[in-house]
Specification:
Mean pLDDT: 80
Structural class: alpha/beta
Number of strands: 9
Radius of gyration: 20 Å
Strand content: 5-15%
Order of helices and strands: HHHHEEEHEHEHEHHEHEHEHH
């Protein structure tokens, strides 16, 4: 068995595709921080001394199985299709595949950024594959017809070297997928396009059922976790999605160095900054103004008009010794508290748990919050 064969173990395929150390140095382009980030314990330069911590009992995932899982896996292998679920070793793969939910990645496998948590290869990407949108749509059709695929999450690497960040390819992929797969709910997990709002508009105009853009972590941790991103820019992206009537979704990891109170403050920030309000309202719809650090005070009841719809919160798991270390294991009780607080602050859906990832229960979220139910009903009436 060669590492490139589809039935090779996911880790074997990942290593074969990424001969260089995975991830990268997330601080190589960042000035020395003004305050200490305690999560970074590699000040001496020996990155490889960081070891992966033993998982607690509540992080044990079930072994994938079942007829629906087997059917989708067989189809993927026979057509040499790859999913992020396999490549990332997602703990929920068995549950999601059994429900007809999968995640694919477009725009290549090389990212132009080097985030401290991410296992995707970084470097100079290959030329954009102009035929990819057509092939993705055809692949989704095969999965829908042959294995009952109901919901697809499409994600991508960052392509900052492109003028539109790959937004044109994103839009074409969404449009072709909707044409090829009637009744399939489509969720996109998009990059920030470096704040190119014209590029974002192309994705919005393609009208996926859910637009997800993960904040990933709290504001203080951005220099280490997302050195090429900006918290406020990502929040503005989510606001623009809500402003045009789409379902907006975001997610964060915990256990990477944040504090519980910072997670709650992030919830307030997101609700405040993404609430639909008149463009001229410079007070963010609440009478409150950002503090010196850009953060917002606690969101009052009146700020809940129609803000970001979905929030996912999951445990950070260190991919390799060359990535940021795990700072703590967040307990199931803490995750339950985050869910309660998120719903209280105005999110319509909060998925919070040790094994939660962006795609967790994504099909249910689309059914509840988007117009996919009406689309499916119309298809049934035509049959």
């Amino acid at each position: 068995m060669t590492p490139t064969q589809p039935d090779a173990p996911p880790l074997t395929r990942t290593v074969a595709r990424h001969p260089r150390p995975l991830g990268g140095d997330p601080l190589r382009v960042v000035d020395r921080p003004l305050v200490s980030l305690s999560v970074l314990n590699n000040a001496g330069g020996a990155v490889d001394h960081m070891t992966v911590k033993r998982k607690p009992p509540w992080l044990r995932a079930k072994v994938p199985g079942g007829p629906e899982y087997t059917k989708l896996r067989t189809l993927l292998q026979s057509h040499r299709l790859h999913t992020v679920c396999e490549e990332a070793g997602c703990p929920n793969m068995g549950e999601c595949w059994s429900r007809g939910v999968a995640t694919i990645m477009i725009l290549g496998d090389t990212c132009t950024r080097a985030c401290g948590f991410c296992n995707v290869k970084t470097g100079r990407p290959n030329a954009l594959d102009r035929d990819e949108p057509r092939r993705v749509a055809e692949s989704l059709r095969l999965m829908q017809e042959g294995a009952g695929l109901k919901h697809i999450v499409i994600t991508s690497v960052n392509r900052d070297e492109l003028a539109d960040g790959g937004a044109g390819a994103w839009a074409e992929t969404i449009v072709r997928a909707r044409e090829a797969c009637p009744g399939l709910s489509i969720e996109v997990l998009i990059p920030d396009f470096e704040g190119n709002w014209g590029a974002l508009q192309m994705v919005i105009d393609a009208r996926p059922h859910i637009i997800n853009h993960n904040l990933e972590t709290v504001r203080r941790m951005y220099p280490a976790v997302r050195p090429s991103a900006k918290f406020d820019r990502s929040a503005e992206l989510l606001r623009r999605v809500k402003e045009q009537g789409l379902v907006a979704k975001t997610g964060i990891m915990v256990g990477i160095g944040e504090r519980d109170e910072e997670v709650l403050a992030l919830m307030d920030d997101v609700v405040q900054r993404t609430a639909v309000r008149p463009p001229s309202d410079s007070t963010n719809g609440s009478g409150a103004r950002p503090g010196a650090d850009g953060s917002m005070p606690h969101a009052p009841q009146t700020a809940r008009a129609d803000a970001c719809d979905i929030l996912t919160i999951g445990q950070y798991l260190q991919p390799t010794r060359n990535h940021l270390p795990i700072d703590r294991w967040v307990t199931p009780e803490q995750f339950a508290m985050f869910k309660t607080e998120g719903l209280r602050r105005g999110f319509k859906v909060v998925e919070s748990g040790p094994l939660v990832r962006s795609s967790y229960h994504a099909d249910h979220q689309a059914d509840v919050l988007s117009d996919i139910g009406a689309e499916r009903a119309e298809l049934r009436s035509r049959a």
